[in-house]
Design goal:
The chain has 4 helices and no strands. By secondary structure, it is mostly helical. It has one domain. The longest helix is centred in the first third of the chain and has 30 residues. The model has no long low-confidence stretch (mean pLDDT 81).
Length: 132
């Protein structure tokens, strides 16, 4: 019972933090006289990447045994995990809502952009693996 209450409270804290973070980013963009696109692509991106960055910094500064491996895992693994999850979620919901969707199972992605991004990722991921 205590675990369920702690879980519910944890969710509430996470949601409150997300709400405060979103509002803080929007107000910072407003105060800096940035457009909505700049706020979304610059400030929000930096704020969302902060946890992955801090994991690597804490792992390296903490100097615990294996900290360098944790840092490398956080740096290399985060984009791979997020890209994999994002593509999987898009595919899953395209399948689940195929009846409602105008295009059915077809995904209308901008192919040149998708190919460029995936090639860029694969090239740099290969370099990271080669450095191991």
């Amino acid at each position: 019972m205590v675990s369920a209450i702690l879980l519910a409270l944890s969710f509430a804290v996470i949601l409150a933090g997300a709400l405060l973070f979103t509002n803080a980013v929007e107000w910072l963009g407003h105060r800096l006289a940035l457009g909505e696109g700049a706020v979304g692509s610059l400030l929000a991106a930096v704020g969302t990447a902060m946890p992955e960055t801090l994991i690597a910094i804490v792992a390296l500064v903490g100097a615990a045994e294996g900290g360098d491996q944790v840092a490398i895992g956080a740096i290399v693994g985060a984009p791979f995990l997020l890209a994999t999850l994002a593509m999987g979620v898009v595919g899953l919901f395209a399948y689940l809502y195929r009846v409602r969707r105008k295009h059915g199972l077809e995904l209308n992605a901008h192919r040149p952009t998708l190919e460029r991004d995936l090639l860029f990722f694969l090239a740099f991921f290969s370099v990271a693996l080669a450095l191991f």
